[in-house]
Description:
Aldehyde Oxidoreductase, domain 3
Amino acid sequence: MLMMPRKVKHRKIHRGGAIRGVSTRGGSVSYGKFALKALSSGLISARQIESARRAMTRYVQRGGKIWIRIFPSKPMTKKGDETPMGKGKGSVDHFVSKVRAGRVMFEMDGVDRSVAKKAMQLAAYKLGIKTKFVEKD
Length: 137
């Protein structure tokens, strides 16, 4: 099931500009031994997060534990196809998570290194940003 907030303060929000800078929070491996870290910034949709989660859980075959460290809380709007200009902002279509470079997105524990690395690689294919596999120091 796709992740989305139960309740939002504002239904439609400003899209904002380019995501600049590096992540100041959530950059270290906290829960598991292995993690997937963002090397570039971007917007990760709820569908991409779910797809990556499925890829990882399928590969580890119900072994180990996975933590998702990002949450899609930003609503993105879309106007219908072939809609003329004007007539206001479109309706909320999906939710995304703003990810800056250096952010730990997924963590894993309870599996050996080679399995974790392959699972994270499969998850990375589903995301639209550059990532790297990291281990807890």
